[in-house]
Design a protein that fits this description.
Main location: membrane
Protein name: Cardiolipin synthase
CATH architecture of the largest domain: 2-Layer Sandwich
Subcellular location: Cell membrane
Number of helices: 19
CATH class of the largest domain: Alpha Beta
Membrane topology: Multi-pass membrane protein
Strand content: 15-25%
CATH topology of the largest domain: Endonuclease, Chain A
Number of domains: 3
CATH superfamily of the largest domain: Endonuclease Chain A
Helix content: 40-55%
Domain PLD phosphodiesterase: 204-231, 386-417
Length: 477
């Protein structure tokens, strides 16, 4: 009777407030194995986070609105086509963040050089350094950044560091990094900690996936790269010569205030300490920079309106000629999948760049389960060769048209990034960042192999079964 009671209750309550695919996956888990499925749902399946996080998000929204209150949706003197202006307005309404000037200093595509560039920026700090990276380890590769942070502390600079607890703890050196950071004088915290013995426990499936650096409120870096050796230091990766391919964009100007606000919110969430953020100044562009217009779009479980997903879907619908999607994990929900395939049917050339073999078994096969419908719609799927993991995350729409758009940041195009992770994305409706991402796409195109529908149709029945089974697990949220 208990078994049937659980199933009857689940049918009436699980679908509330969630997507059909997610409801189906959770119901399947509960109906087939209620002893396991129900506890998992109660632990991770709720679409709501604890009251404290909701309260903090509400306070954060008010702080963003207060700091950015006098800033228009986009800079005066810059006009945008109606469709782009509507996306900018939507992002502003959902997150409070306006589109502002963003002075661009280039996209770093060399993994080690990106770390050295961050270290150089830290060495120029005069007031403070705020660093927030999802996965953080102090290893031989990242030592250049930590040494720069240590030198900053020695100069009297305030250094704050945030990194995700669960995201970092499985990598070598985690259990020593806290002592090393404290010894260096760095003020550090873990985000979304699972430390019940300290009275700190969060939903275990929620992660803070953001990756960015802010120096003195003037120079910033953001993108897809974690603070770890590009092999991620696991025995399997080292044995298979697996290495990550990432990008970080270096920026300055008023856009840095938007990043500072996000850091201040996340720092307050973990420490209760308030960081004062000054409104953006209309300072002239820095030398050797290229002006862009950009809008930071934060997202996460505290946002009930899914600003990340709405932005990505809107940009896909905006494309008229060419659409480039680059993501290590492409597991779209119904709305994004429909938008991408509809773009093909409208005559848009859609190019999807993914790894030939993803670093995670479940993700690799869940992603593959969408290839059939994508290929049949006309999507050009390009496989970045193994053993490399293409971890860059960006979108470019109509790069050579009159109304181009681009997105770059920490967000994948999957259920987790759209619903469970705290992410940041930079939407760029104007500027050189769009052309640089287009040039990067040409580089990826030169080394990738296109997957044809004919080749895909020859996959084995076993592969089809595994792909579809893993597809069900991807919707469990």
């Amino acid at each position: 009777m208990l078994d049937y009671g659980i199933k009857i209750i689940a049918v009436g309550f699980v679908p509330e407030g969630r997507r059909p695919s997610s409801s189906t996956a959770w119901l399947l888990a509960i109906l087939l194995i209620p002893i396991v499925g129900l506890p998992l749902f109660l632990l991770m399946g709720s679409p709501y986070i604890n009251r404290r996080r909701h309260r903090i998000q509400q306070e954060a929204t008010l702080m963003i609105e207060d700091v950015q209150a006098d800033v228009p949706d986009h800079p005066q003197g810059h006009s945008f086509q109606a469709e782009i202006a509507s996306i900018l307005h939507m992002n502003r309404r959902l997150t409070g963040m306006p589109a502002v000037r963003c002075d661009h200093h280039g996209i770093h595509t060399d993994y080690d050089e990106a770390l050295r560039a961050m270290a150089r920026a830290i060495d120029r700090a005069k007031k403070y350094v705020h660093l927030q990276i999802y996965i953080t380890t102090w290893d031989d590769t990242t030592d250049v950044v930590f040494q720069a942070l240590s030198r900053a502390v020695d100069r009297g600079i305030k250094v704050r560091l945030l990194f995700d607890h669960v995201g970092s703890w499985k990598y070598p050196g985690y259990w020593k990094i806290g002592r090393r950071l404290t010894a260096a004088g760095i003020d550090w915290r873990v985000m979304l900690p699972l430390q019940p013995w300290k009275g700190r426990f969060r939903r275990p499936d929620l992660r803070n996936h953001r990756k960015f650096l802010v120096v003195d409120g003037q120079r910033a870096f953001m993108g897809s790269q974690n603070l770890i050796d590009r092999s991620y230091l696991t025995r399997t990766n080292v044995r298979n010569h697996r290495q990550w391919v990432d990008i970080m964009t270096e920026i300055s100007g008023p856009i840095v205030t938007s990043l500072e606000l996000i850091f201040a919110i996340d720092w307050y969430s973990e420490t209760g300490e308030t960081i004062n953020v000054q409104p953006p100044r209309n300072a002239p562009p820095l030398p050797h920079s290229t002006p862009n217009i950009a809008q930071l779009v934060p997202s996460g479980p505290g946002y009930t309106t899914e600003p990340n997903l709405r932005m990505f879907t809107s940009v896909v619908h905006h494309a008229k000629e060419r659409l480039v999607l680059c993501s290590p994990y492409f597991i779209p929900d119904e709305s994004l999948l429909e938008a991408v395939t509809s773009a093909c049917y409208r005559g848009v050339r859609v190019e999807l760049f993914v790894s030939e073999k993803a670093d995670q078994f479940v993700v690799h096969h869940a992603q593959s389960s969408y290839y059939q419908v994508l290929l049949e719609a006309g999507v050009h799927i390009y496989l970045f060769p193994r053993p490399f993991v293409l971890h860059s995350k960006y979108v470019v729409a109509d790069p050579t048209g009159d109304n181009p758009l681009a997105i770059i940041g920490s967000s994948n195009m999957d259920f987790r990034s759209f619903g469970l992770n705290y992410e940041i994305s930079l939407m760029v409706p104007q500027g050189s960042m769009i052309s640089e991402l287009t040039e990067l796409t040409d580089t990826y195109l030169g080394v990738s192999q296109e997957l044809s529908l004919e080749t895909w149709n020859r996959r084995s029945l076993v592969r089809r079964y595994i792909d579809n089974a893993m597809k069900l697990t991807s919707a469990l949220q």
